[in-house]
Amino acid sequence: MTNAFTALADPTRRTIFERVAAQPSAVGALAAELPVSRPAVSQHLRVLKDAGLVVDEAHGTRRVYRVRQEGLAELRAYLDQFWDQSLAAFRDLAEAEDA
Amino acid sequence: MTNAFTALADPTRRTIFERVAAQPSAVGALAAELPVSRPAVSQHLRVLKDAGLVVDEAHGTRRVYRVRQEGLAELRAYLDQFWDQSLAAFRDLAEAEDA
DNA sequence: ACTTACGGTAAGCGAAAGCTTACATATCTT
DNA sequence: AAGATATGTAAGCTTTCGCTTACCGTAAGT
After folding, report:
1. B3-98 adopts what CATH topology?
2. What share of residues in chain B are helix, strand, coil (percent, to 5)?
3. Every domain of chain B and the residues it spans
4. One digit per residue, pLDDT tens: chain A, 99 residues?
5. Which SS3 state, helix, strand or coil, does residue B53 take?
6. Chain A neighbors of B9, CB-CB under 8 A
7. Which nucleotide is closest to the Cα of B61 by its C1'?
8. Which nucleotides on strand D sit less than 7 A from a protein beta carbon?
9. Which of A47, B45, B85, B95 has the largest CB neighbor count within 10 A?
Protein backbone atom coordinates (compact mmCIF):
# COMPACT_ATOMS: atom_id res chain seq x y z
CA MET A 1 0.00 0.00 0.00
CA THR A 2 2.79 2.38 0.84
CA ASN A 3 4.02 1.80 -2.68
CA ALA A 4 1.07 3.79 -3.92
CA PHE A 5 3.10 6.91 -3.33
CA THR A 6 5.84 5.67 -5.59
CA ALA A 7 3.22 4.77 -8.15
CA LEU A 8 1.74 8.27 -8.15
CA ALA A 9 5.08 10.04 -7.94
CA ASP A 10 5.85 9.97 -11.65
CA PRO A 11 4.01 12.66 -13.66
CA THR A 12 3.28 10.42 -16.63
CA ARG A 13 2.01 7.69 -14.39
CA ARG A 14 -0.13 10.13 -12.47
CA THR A 15 -1.63 11.34 -15.73
CA ILE A 16 -2.43 7.77 -16.69
CA PHE A 17 -4.09 7.27 -13.35
CA GLU A 18 -6.14 10.44 -13.84
CA ARG A 19 -7.34 9.29 -17.26
CA VAL A 20 -8.24 5.88 -15.93
CA ALA A 21 -10.11 7.50 -13.04
CA ALA A 22 -12.05 9.70 -15.44
CA GLN A 23 -12.86 6.74 -17.63
CA PRO A 24 -11.77 3.10 -17.63
CA SER A 25 -9.58 2.65 -20.69
CA ALA A 26 -7.49 0.21 -22.67
CA VAL A 27 -3.73 0.47 -23.01
CA GLY A 28 -3.69 1.58 -26.63
CA ALA A 29 -6.28 4.28 -26.07
CA LEU A 30 -4.23 5.72 -23.24
CA ALA A 31 -1.01 5.59 -25.20
CA ALA A 32 -2.65 7.43 -28.11
CA GLU A 33 -3.28 10.41 -25.84
CA LEU A 34 0.16 10.46 -24.28
CA PRO A 35 3.62 11.50 -25.47
CA VAL A 36 5.12 8.11 -24.60
CA SER A 37 5.10 4.76 -26.32
CA ARG A 38 2.57 2.02 -25.69
CA PRO A 39 5.05 -0.24 -23.86
CA ALA A 40 5.82 2.65 -21.54
CA VAL A 41 2.13 2.94 -20.73
CA SER A 42 1.98 -0.79 -20.19
CA GLN A 43 4.86 -0.59 -17.74
CA HIS A 44 3.26 2.28 -15.89
CA LEU A 45 0.02 0.38 -15.59
CA ARG A 46 1.89 -2.53 -14.14
CA VAL A 47 3.33 -0.31 -11.43
CA LEU A 48 -0.11 1.11 -10.68
CA LYS A 49 -1.54 -2.37 -10.56
CA ASP A 50 1.18 -3.67 -8.23
CA ALA A 51 0.44 -0.72 -5.98
CA GLY A 52 -3.18 -1.78 -5.84
CA LEU A 53 -4.43 1.41 -7.43
CA VAL A 54 -5.89 -0.10 -10.60
CA VAL A 55 -7.30 -3.41 -11.76
CA ASP A 56 -7.53 -4.78 -15.27
CA GLU A 57 -10.14 -6.83 -17.00
CA ALA A 58 -9.83 -8.61 -20.32
CA HIS A 59 -12.35 -7.45 -22.89
CA GLY A 60 -11.68 -9.42 -26.00
CA THR A 61 -8.17 -8.62 -27.07
CA ARG A 62 -8.16 -5.38 -25.13
CA ARG A 63 -7.38 -4.97 -21.50
CA VAL A 64 -9.47 -2.35 -19.77
CA TYR A 65 -7.99 -0.73 -16.70
CA ARG A 66 -10.00 0.98 -14.02
CA VAL A 67 -9.37 2.45 -10.60
CA ARG A 68 -9.42 0.15 -7.61
CA GLN A 69 -11.42 2.00 -4.98
CA GLU A 70 -9.94 0.00 -2.13
CA GLY A 71 -6.51 1.24 -3.12
CA LEU A 72 -7.60 4.83 -2.85
CA ALA A 73 -9.36 4.11 0.43
CA GLU A 74 -6.25 2.57 1.94
CA LEU A 75 -4.17 5.48 0.84
CA ARG A 76 -6.54 7.97 2.36
CA ALA A 77 -6.69 6.01 5.59
CA TYR A 78 -2.92 6.11 5.74
CA LEU A 79 -2.94 9.88 5.37
CA ASP A 80 -5.70 10.30 7.93
CA GLN A 81 -3.56 8.49 10.43
CA PHE A 82 -0.92 11.19 10.13
CA TRP A 83 -3.53 13.85 10.25
CA ASP A 84 -4.67 12.68 13.67
CA GLN A 85 -1.11 12.11 14.84
CA SER A 86 0.14 15.51 13.87
CA LEU A 87 -2.84 17.20 15.46
CA ALA A 88 -2.23 15.36 18.72
CA ALA A 89 1.46 16.22 18.60
CA PHE A 90 0.61 19.85 18.04
CA ARG A 91 -1.75 19.82 21.01
CA ASP A 92 0.91 18.24 23.20
CA LEU A 93 3.37 20.88 22.11
CA ALA A 94 0.97 23.68 22.97
CA GLU A 95 0.40 22.20 26.41
CA ALA A 96 4.13 21.91 26.98
CA GLU A 97 4.60 25.55 26.09
CA ASP A 98 2.00 26.57 28.64
CA ALA A 99 4.05 24.94 31.37
CA MET B 1 1.13 19.81 -4.27
CA THR B 2 1.36 16.91 -6.65
CA ASN B 3 4.99 16.67 -5.65
CA ALA B 4 3.87 15.37 -2.30
CA PHE B 5 3.67 11.93 -3.84
CA THR B 6 7.30 12.12 -4.86
CA ALA B 7 8.16 13.30 -1.38
CA LEU B 8 6.44 10.34 0.25
CA ALA B 9 7.62 7.82 -2.30
CA ASP B 10 11.03 7.18 -0.77
CA PRO B 11 10.93 4.80 2.23
CA THR B 12 13.48 6.71 4.28
CA ARG B 13 11.71 9.97 3.63
CA ARG B 14 8.38 8.43 4.53
CA THR B 15 9.85 7.21 7.81
CA ILE B 16 11.11 10.70 8.53
CA PHE B 17 7.68 12.07 7.85
CA GLU B 18 6.13 9.50 10.17
CA ARG B 19 8.49 10.44 12.98
CA VAL B 20 7.83 14.12 12.49
CA ALA B 21 4.09 13.46 12.50
CA ALA B 22 4.37 11.51 15.74
CA GLN B 23 6.45 14.26 17.28
CA PRO B 24 8.00 17.46 15.93
CA SER B 25 11.73 16.91 15.91
CA ALA B 26 15.09 18.41 15.06
CA VAL B 27 17.34 17.09 12.31
CA GLY B 28 19.93 15.53 14.55
CA ALA B 29 17.39 13.72 16.66
CA LEU B 30 15.87 12.21 13.54
CA ALA B 31 19.23 11.21 12.11
CA ALA B 32 20.16 9.48 15.35
CA GLU B 33 17.24 7.09 14.89
CA LEU B 34 17.84 6.38 11.24
CA PRO B 35 20.39 4.32 9.31
CA VAL B 36 21.41 7.29 7.16
CA SER B 37 23.66 10.26 7.77
CA ARG B 38 22.51 13.61 9.09
CA PRO B 39 22.99 15.43 5.78
CA ALA B 40 20.81 12.81 4.14
CA VAL B 41 18.06 13.58 6.64
CA SER B 42 18.52 17.27 5.97
CA GLN B 43 18.10 16.70 2.26
CA HIS B 44 15.01 14.61 2.80
CA LEU B 45 13.48 17.29 4.98
CA ARG B 46 14.11 19.81 2.25
CA VAL B 47 12.16 17.69 -0.19
CA LEU B 48 9.31 17.32 2.28
CA LYS B 49 9.34 21.05 2.90
CA ASP B 50 9.31 21.90 -0.81
CA ALA B 51 6.36 19.58 -1.16
CA GLY B 52 4.53 21.54 1.53
CA LEU B 53 4.29 18.58 3.86
CA VAL B 54 6.41 19.98 6.70
CA VAL B 55 7.44 23.34 8.07
CA ASP B 56 10.48 24.21 10.12
CA GLU B 57 10.98 26.62 12.95
CA ALA B 58 14.25 27.80 14.39
CA HIS B 59 14.67 27.00 18.06
CA GLY B 60 18.05 28.29 19.04
CA THR B 61 20.56 26.44 16.93
CA ARG B 62 18.14 23.61 16.30
CA ARG B 63 15.56 23.51 13.62
CA VAL B 64 12.37 21.78 14.62
CA TYR B 65 10.31 20.27 11.84
CA ARG B 66 6.63 19.53 12.12
CA VAL B 67 3.87 18.42 9.80
CA ARG B 68 2.06 21.06 7.79
CA GLN B 69 -1.62 20.16 8.08
CA GLU B 70 -2.57 22.09 4.97
CA GLY B 71 -0.23 19.88 2.97
CA LEU B 72 -1.97 16.76 4.17
CA ALA B 73 -5.36 18.35 3.54
CA GLU B 74 -4.48 19.22 -0.04
CA LEU B 75 -3.21 15.74 -0.66
CA ARG B 76 -6.37 14.18 0.66
CA ALA B 77 -8.52 16.54 -1.37
CA TYR B 78 -6.62 15.48 -4.47
CA LEU B 79 -7.31 11.83 -3.72
CA ASP B 80 -10.96 12.48 -2.95
CA GLN B 81 -11.34 13.99 -6.38
CA PHE B 82 -10.35 10.67 -7.94
CA TRP B 83 -12.54 8.83 -5.55
CA ASP B 84 -15.58 10.70 -6.81
CA GLN B 85 -14.48 10.48 -10.41
CA SER B 86 -13.89 6.76 -10.37
CA LEU B 87 -17.22 6.14 -8.67
CA ALA B 88 -19.00 8.18 -11.31
CA ALA B 89 -17.15 6.36 -14.06
CA PHE B 90 -18.11 3.05 -12.55
CA ARG B 91 -21.75 4.09 -12.38
CA ASP B 92 -21.67 5.21 -16.02
CA LEU B 93 -20.17 1.89 -16.99
CA ALA B 94 -22.90 -0.02 -15.18
CA GLU B 95 -25.56 1.99 -16.93
CA ALA B 96 -23.95 1.38 -20.28
CA GLU B 97 -23.95 -2.35 -19.62
CA ASP B 98 -27.66 -2.30 -18.90
CA ALA B 99 -28.30 -0.92 -22.35
C1' DA C 1 -5.53 -21.61 -41.02
C1' DC C 2 -3.70 -16.99 -41.75
C1' DT C 3 -3.59 -12.45 -40.90
C1' DT C 4 -4.35 -8.56 -38.10
C1' DA C 5 -4.88 -6.17 -33.73
C1' DC C 6 -3.68 -5.58 -29.03
C1' DG C 7 -0.78 -5.88 -25.19
C1' DG C 8 2.91 -7.79 -22.04
C1' DT C 9 8.14 -8.60 -21.64
C1' DA C 10 13.35 -8.17 -22.28
C1' DA C 11 17.47 -5.56 -23.10
C1' DG C 12 19.77 -1.52 -22.98
C1' DC C 13 20.57 3.46 -22.46
C1' DG C 14 20.51 8.20 -20.48
C1' DA C 15 18.68 10.86 -16.71
C1' DA C 16 17.52 11.31 -12.08
C1' DA C 17 17.62 10.08 -7.11
C1' DG C 18 19.71 9.06 -2.74
C1' DC C 19 23.79 8.50 -0.10
C1' DT C 20 28.39 9.86 1.77
C1' DT C 21 32.23 12.94 2.79
C1' DA C 22 33.90 17.50 3.07
C1' DC C 23 32.96 22.22 3.76
C1' DA C 24 30.39 26.53 5.09
C1' DT C 25 27.15 29.08 8.20
C1' DA C 26 24.81 30.46 12.33
C1' DT C 27 23.71 30.33 17.26
C1' DC C 28 24.69 29.32 22.02
C1' DT C 29 28.06 28.96 25.92
C1' DT C 30 31.81 30.30 28.77
C1' DA D 1 36.08 36.30 21.46
C1' DA D 2 36.59 31.52 20.97
C1' DG D 3 35.04 27.07 20.99
C1' DA D 4 31.22 23.94 20.59
C1' DT D 5 26.78 22.57 18.73
C1' DA D 6 23.47 22.08 15.15
C1' DT D 7 22.30 22.39 10.43
C1' DG D 8 22.40 23.47 5.46
C1' DT D 9 25.12 22.92 0.94
C1' DA D 10 28.34 21.13 -2.78
C1' DA D 11 30.56 17.45 -5.25
C1' DG D 12 30.81 12.96 -6.63
C1' DC D 13 29.47 8.12 -6.90
C1' DT D 14 26.17 4.23 -7.35
C1' DT D 15 21.80 2.67 -8.01
C1' DT D 16 17.29 3.18 -9.66
C1' DC D 17 13.91 4.77 -13.02
C1' DG D 18 11.57 5.76 -17.22
C1' DC D 19 11.91 5.43 -21.99
C1' DT D 20 12.64 3.18 -26.58
C1' DT D 21 13.11 -0.65 -29.78
C1' DA D 22 12.59 -5.42 -30.66
C1' DC D 23 10.25 -9.53 -29.72
C1' DC D 24 6.57 -12.89 -28.17
C1' DG D 25 1.87 -14.50 -26.99
C1' DT D 26 -3.09 -14.33 -27.49
C1' DA D 27 -7.64 -13.29 -29.22
C1' DA D 28 -10.61 -11.85 -33.10
C1' DG D 29 -11.85 -11.59 -38.12
C1' DT D 30 -11.85 -13.24 -42.85
Report:
1. Arc Repressor Mutant, subunit A (1.10.10)
2. 70, 15, 15
3. 3-98
4. 769 999 999 999 999 999 999 999 999 999 999 999 999 999 999 999 999 999 999 999 999 999 999 999 999 999 999 988 888 877 776 776 655
5. coil
6. 5-6, 9
7. C27
8. 4-10, 17-22, 26-28
9. B45
